[in-house]
């Protein structure tokens, strides 16, 4: 999978890709990440990227022309399956979206800044808009890193233990059950007996009960989504 990230702050985004699972995916050749500094497509001597809003109002808006130049250059080199815009005024990211995106060949991620981008960028180029939650970040860079992490770990071959992505929280719209490791008793707190029993069908039943219980308590909204 190839991901092209268009940003005004590439430095803010690079380090998550140099560690852990994302580094492993890149080293294995399963993911390829390319950063594009929007500034290089800016207008005039000052490489201008943004301007004030028509109609008035606080905050600068990213102009269409630099973004058009950058996206058009990429599109002249290869076909893209999705052109994603990271913005708080969009549907929130969930596991279904991450699963779907992990099967794509080439995607572009455009990260917003300031007051966002000229609406005509969204109308002309963007095929999918994603928010990572109901709060506002300074820019879309950290959100893009989070999206990439959620997607890249699902690319077949990235996770060592192929099972583990399937038992993640949210994979079946449920939170994960509690987990324990040694010691079996700590400061009077005991690990639930069932987990020490070796009775694996019973253990699975217990885990599934606990997953439902935890979901009912903490995220009952997830149960309504089925
Ligand atoms: Cl994708 N961008 C920004 N700037 N803020 C956010 C977000 C994205 N998702 C949640 N808040």
UniProtKB/TrEMBL annotation:
Family listed: Belongs to the RNA methyltransferase TrmD family.
Biological process according to GO: tRNA N1-guanine methylation
Protein name (database record): tRNA (guanine-N(1)-)-methyltransferase
Molecular function as annotated in GO: tRNA (guanine(37)-N1)-methyltransferase activity
Reaction(s) this enzyme catalyzes, per UniProt: guanosine(37) in tRNA + S-adenosyl-L-methionine = N(1)-methylguanosine(37) in tRNA + S-adenosyl-L-homocysteine + H(+)
Keywords annotated in UniProt: Cytoplasm, Methyltransferase, S-adenosyl-L-methionine, Transferase, tRNA processing
This protein's encoding gene: trmD
Principal place of residence: cytoplasm
Binding site for S-adenosyl-L-methionine: 112, 132-137
EC id: 2.1.1.228
EC class name: transferase
CDD domains, per database record: TrmD-like
A cellular component annotation (GO) from this entry: cytosol
Subunit-level organization: Homodimer.
